[in-house]
Amino acid sequence: MKKEIRICGFGGQGVILSGFIIGKAASVFMNYQAVQSQSYGPEARGGAARSEIIVSDEKIGYPRPLGVDCLVAMSQESFDTYRDDIRDDTVIIVDPDLVKKHDIGRPVYKVHAQQIAEELGNKIVTNIVMVGAFTSIFKLLEPDAVKESVIDSVPKRFTDLNTRAFERGLEAGKNALKELR
């Protein structure tokens, strides 16, 4: 088994942290190999950013995706920029409030991650909501392993907020799955 994941958005959304959390969940809290790479524009905030994670049950020979099994998009610019190499079977997850033009002639899972984060009191956890949704929709990693990775990766004073964001994301992902059935 080898899965390649791309999370994209704009700088400042926590795209890199999201990839780090998924990679850590796979390699530290589960028994997989994982590698994470990242790229972002020269802007400190606002430019397109992406985090790519490869998760495998065998050694990973090349650290960059050759094809994407799951694309998570949290901005229109990043969706437009980083969707070029998706396949027909790529799972696509978007926040439709941030990626308004996502009709590409196939199913897209829609999760209102930023709206959920705002309901929790801080849109800074939009990325953690999306990590939860990814966990439910893509079904690659155990939710408990990803939750432990979230707790282990965020500042301790924000553990409760991030845990709630992750759990709300899990639920939103389950709802997105039901909507596409």
Topology overview:
Elements: E1 2-10, H1 15-27, E2 33-40, E3 48-56, E4 68-73, H2 76-82, E5 86-94, E6 109-110, H3 113-119, H4 126-138, H5 143-153, H6 159-180
Secondary-structure element string = EHEEEHEEHHHH
CATH class: Alpha Beta
Helical content stands at 40-55%
Supply the number of helical segments. 6
- Which residues form runs of ≥5 with pLDDT under 50? none
Q: What is the CATH superfamily classification?
A: Pyruvate-ferredoxin oxidoreductase, PFOR, domain III
Q: How many beta strands in the DSSP annotation?
A: 6
CATH topology: Pyruvate-ferredoxin Oxidoreductase, domain 3
Radius of gyration: 15 Å
CATH second-level architecture: 3-Layer(aba) Sandwich
Q: Can you give the mean pLDDT?
A: 93
Distance between the termini: 25 Å
Q: In this structure, how is the largest beta sheet organized?
A: 6 strands, mixed
Quaternary status: single chain
Q: Structural class, from helix and strand content?
A: alpha/beta
Tertiary shape? globular
The percent range for strand residues is 15-25%
Model description:
- The chain is built from six helices and six strands.
- With 181 residues, the protein is of the alpha/beta class.
- It has a single domain (2-180), classed as Pyruvate-ferredoxin oxidoreductase, PFOR, domain III (Pyruvate-ferredoxin Oxidoreductase, domain 3, 3-Layer(aba) Sandwich), CATH 3.40.920.10.
- It has a six-stranded mixed beta sheet with strand order 2-3-1-4-5-6, with helices on both faces.
- The model has no long low-confidence stretch (mean pLDDT 93).
